[in-house]
From TrEMBL:
Belongs to the ELP5 family. GO terms for cellular component: cytosol; elongator holoenzyme complex; nucleus. Signal peptide: none annotated. Keywords: Cytoplasm, Nucleus, tRNA processing. Its main location: cytoplasm. This is Elongator complex protein 5. Pathway: tRNA modification; 5-methoxycarbonylmethyl-2-thiouridine-tRNA biosynthesis. It comes from Podospora didyma. GO terms for biological process: tRNA wobble uridine modification. Residues 269-293 are annotated as: Disordered.
Amino acid sequence: MAPSAQVHQRNHSLLLLQKLLNQRDGASPLNLIIDSLEQSAAPLVREFINRAKIGKTKVVFVSLATVKKPPNVDIFVKARGKSLKALASEIISHYAAPAALKSNSKDTPVQKYLVIIDSLNPLACREPRLLPDFFKGVIGASASLVAVYHGDVPIILPKTFSEYEPHPLTLLTHLATTVFQVSSLYQAVEIKRAQSRSLQEPEWGLREGREGVLVGLNKGHEKEAPIAGMVIDMEMRRRSGRGVAAKFVLAGTAGITLLSDHPLFVAPQDTGAGNAEETADGEADTTFSLGLTDKQRKDREGIVLPYFDAQTDIGAGEGGRILYEMTWEDDFDDEEDEI
């Protein structure tokens, strides 16, 4: 890929993520964030909330696991123990009435809403079949949804759930217009180091396979604080059906950058003899000369190879034999000649 194309692709990916985080022009109505025990989705959720506050978008926070109202949240809805139908009705009740929207002049901007669900797991366990209708009722022209799903938390499905029905996570990833898979930057760096040394990749948490032990996000950060942060694996589905995928790093005050631009993930540039380029004469540009002098070139052209005469038709059954004329420097060995 040409440098100009790489720059264009880089800028396009960054602008697309900024558009999704700002929820500009209804870029993605349903955003699914998949996190784990090693990396919480909280930093990315805070980024959504802070940008909504700057854009004067009202934030409706639906709590299934959060006890206290987070900062910069306008409406806090407690959803534990409520059915999906009742929860959808309560969320919609906080939207501006349609009559009020019609009474406003055309110059008055329409109030936008950002609905955040801190955990979809309880809803997926309770009524997985009703999730599409729930999303359809909550999402509107002026409202978008950001929902968190804990990927490594077991889902206890109801007894009426058929084995032929798709898993709730499969259904959610199919419905979502954008999927964010978050992971620890520290763990991504450790995996890259293992790959560069052809070593087995380390595992954490449940994948580690050690009963009763969870190696979490803070493992090793005391010594390597500069690599603290999270990796965002984004996949956006456009209306045309074409998907756009990119990986980013969210590292607090450092902001958001592409994973490939992070200092610990930048591809090393070849230097020295390994980065040799051919000159106009066709010779490699190295620290030593590979060319031949005029005398060496003439001597090379005058050399007659020992198998040159074997290409001519000498006689029946003898074509292809090697002819070699011995000189005084050769040490003739009768026993070796017999072998």
